[in-house]
Amino acid sequence: EKVRTLSAPEGTGSILCCALSPHGSRTALALGGEEAAACVVDLRVGGAGGDASSSSASSASSVAHSLRAGLGCFHADDAVTSVTWHPTREHVLLCAHGRVVTAWDVRHLPSETAGSADSAAAAVAGMSLAAGAAPRGRVHLYAFNNDEVNSVCVDRKGRRMCAADDGGEIVVVDVGDETSVGGALVKTLKNGHENIAAGAAFRDHKPNDVVSGGLDCAVCKWDQSRATPVATWRVGELAAASDAESGSSLGGGDDDDAAAGDDAAGGDDAANATLGDGGGSGETIGTAKKLASGGVAGAVSRTATAPIDRIKTIMQAGRLPSSGIAPSAPAVSASAASSPQSTPRVTLASAARAVWREGGWAAFWRGNAANVAKVVPETATKYVAFDALKSALASDPGNATVLERFAAGGMAGAAAQTVVYPLEIVKTRVALTAGGNISMATVIAGVLRAEGAKGLFKGLTPSLVGIFPYAGIDLMANSVLKDALAAKYAEVVWFHSNRGCSET
C-alpha cells in the first residue's frame, strides 16, 4: 500500500495542525500553518508518493480552499495553531489563531483559482477585518480566551466547543446545534494548570467532562459545572511510581525492594482507579460530601417538621394514639364500619391535644429517630440508583432526554423507598403509640413476632405507585434545571442535584 506525502502549500509555512473531515468520503483534509494560513486539501486530487517537487506540485493542485491573512481571514501575526471540523455541520471548519477561534463555511471561501472579482472582494474584507467586518465565509468568531489558543475541540453533538490557551485556562462555549453556530460562554475552567494548557477534549460518552493536558506535565479532568478540576494527575509522579515498581520487580529477593514494589503497585492501582469513571479521589470525595450534606440537610428538615408529620400520621390512621405498640391498622368492627358516628372524627386540634396530654412538647417528636435514620440510606440509594439507571436507560448516556431522566428518577425513588420502607413502618407504629419510650428495636421485634417479615413491608405497593411519579419529576426537573443553569451562566454556583430527601 502506497503512502502519499503532502508538502505544505506555498504561503502556509510549517504545518502546525491537521484534521480529516469525518463527513462523507472523508477526503477533505484541513491544514493549519505557521504563516497565518490554513487550507483544505482534497485527497482525491493528485498522485501518491514522488519526489519533493512533484509532491509540492501535487499539494498545490489539490488545495480546494484557502484561508490566509491576505484574504482577510486572519491577522498577519497569528499562526493557525489548531483546526477541527464541526461534527454535525459538514462544511464548517473551526480554526484557532491568536486569542480567538473562528468558524468558516468552506463553501463560501474564495478559491485559489477564483476570478478577479472574488479576489478583490476578499482583499476588501481583509482590509476591513480590524474594523470588525466579517470576512467572506466566516460563520462566527469566538473571542473568549485571554491568551493564545493552542487547541480547539467540539463535542460529538456539535453543541459545545472547548479551547485551551497559553494562560492554562480552558474556555467552554455553546456553539449552537445542527442548524446554527452560536456563541455563548458556558464556563472558564481554570486553576488546574500552572502554565500553558496544550490541549483539551470532551469525553465521548460523558460530554459534560473535559480532559486537558498542559506543559506542566499535568492532566486535569473537569466538570463543566465547576470552575476547578475534579481530578488532577501529575505525569511525573505516575512515571516515578511506575519506574519504582519496575525496579523492584527486577531486584527480586530483597525485602525492601519488595515493599517498595508493593507501594508502587498500590500507587498505580490508585492512579488507575482515579482515571476510571467511577473512581478517583476527586469524584469519591465529591460523592461523600454530597451524601453527607444531603444526610445532614434531610435530618434537620425532618426534625423541624416532625410535629406536623406525627399529627398527619395520626389523622391518616383516623384514631388517637393508644397505649402499647400500635397495630398495623386500627381494628374496626362491622357495626362501627356501618355507623360513621360511632368513631369520633380526628381533627387537627384533637390530634394535637392528644399528643400534648401524652407527654408535652417531647411527644411531638415521637418516632423522629426512625425518620432521621431513613435519610442517609434513602439519599444514598436514590443518588446511586439515579446515576446508574440514567446511564443504562439513555440512548446517549451523556445527554439523557427528559423522559429518560423521568424514568430513571422514578425507578431510583422506588428503589430508595423499598430500602427504607421498614423504617417507615417503625415510624408509623411509634407515632400511633401513646406513652412510654418505645425503641425501634422493640417495634421491629413486635412486628416480626406478630406478622413476620412481610409485616415490615405492608402497604409497600401503593407507596411505590405514589413515589414513582413524585421522584421521577423531582429528579428529572432537578437534573434538567442544573444543566440549564450551567449552560446559561458562566459562573454558576454548583447546583446540588442530590438533595436530602425530605418527602413523606
From TrEMBL:
It is a multi-pass membrane protein. It holds the Pfam family Mito_carr. Keywords: Membrane, Repeat, Transmembrane, Transport. GO terms for biological process: transmembrane transport. The keyword Transmembrane helix does not apply. GO terms for cellular component: membrane. It is found in: Membrane. SUPFAM superfamilies: Mitochondrial carrier (SSF103506), WD40 repeat-like (SSF50978). Residues 261-275 have a biased composition (Low complexity). Its main location: membrane. Residues 242-281 are annotated as: Disordered. InterPro entries: MCP, MCP_dom_sf, MCP_transmembrane, WD40/YVTN_repeat-like_dom_sf, WD40_repeat_dom_sf, WD40_rpt. Solcar repeats lie at residues 285-392, 400-484. The keyword Metal-binding does not apply. It comes from the Eukaryota. Belongs to the mitochondrial carrier (TC 2.A.29) family. This is Mitochondrial carrier family. It comes from Micromonas pusilla.
